[in-house]
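Bug #77: duplicate submission created two jobs. Keeping one. Sequence:
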Amino acid sequence: MRRAAVAVAAGAMAVSLAACGSAKESKGGDSSASSEKKGDAIKVGLLLPENQTARYEKFDKPLIEAKVKELTNDKGEVVYANAKQDASTQSQQVDTMITNKVDVLIIDAVDSAAIKNSVQKAKDAGIPVVAYDRLAQGPISAYTSFDNKTVGKTQGEALLGALGSKAKSGKIVMMNGSVTDPNAAQFKAGAHEVLDGKVNVGKEYDTKEWKPENANANMEAAISALGKKNIIGVYSANDGMAGGIITALKAAGIKVPVTGQDAELAGVQRILAGEQFMSVYKPYAPEADAAAELAVALAQGKSLDSVAKDKVDSPTDKQIPSLLVPVTSLTKENIKDTVVKDKLYTVEEICTPAYAAACKKAGLQ
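Kept job's structure:
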């Protein structure tokens, strides 16, 4: 039987993410940009961190653009730049956005600490900042993401379930994300909370820039250090790295459960083929919609109360108005009820000839 998707999150989803609110000032509302009443002809700066992960260009950017247009009667403009994993480039992009006098910024930081001075510059220029997906440091006005610690717990619980009674029969390898990404630390903490004491961690890595090739090199080093017969599973913080890890495992003749995150198309296909055990499905539309609604509300000087149902603390600020979106553990049993049902991918996109047999077995036709 197909297992129903189970959503997990610390904060409840808002039934409606409408940004219509009252004229009451929100956090960060003392800036001239947010206190001044603006109409629909606003300019939203959107800065995304990199283009190696499929989600940013394929989903986040167009979803945010569409929602801003919807909320502003097609009068709002989104000015976009991608930092291509370079924190210095992103800082320069913030400067450019300030020069171009955007009304509000949405920033998914390459480096959450390095962006702090740029966020301060934006505030000083009267431009409120929405931290998107990663909790940037500095005086941000709002934040939206997923419950990242719960993501790590979800991955850890899935790996434990896959290992079953063999959980302590060998070593697992933990492949965490980049140290510059605050989300990676939260994924790692959540996973450790579940796994510590229940498995033996043979090797653990913080993977530079989340790059699959770096994860591949780390996995090769782990295999060499631990011996291929001693590895029983791999915690991978995302799907891109899982691809690099699985390539190394295949080359060594090892087949063990590997986790992931982001429900990338290649990851979904690997799950169907039995190469990757699971991923974490994070529905991008609610997160992107929330970012757009927070940004438009801030630009127009409206309250965030109808959108930001949660509060989050950063290393530099407390009680930041936030919205945390639920996530789902994705396995071959619920692909149809999640990524296909939500139209993230079509069956045709997933079930290419190489995966036709696996799709048929999983009921994807």
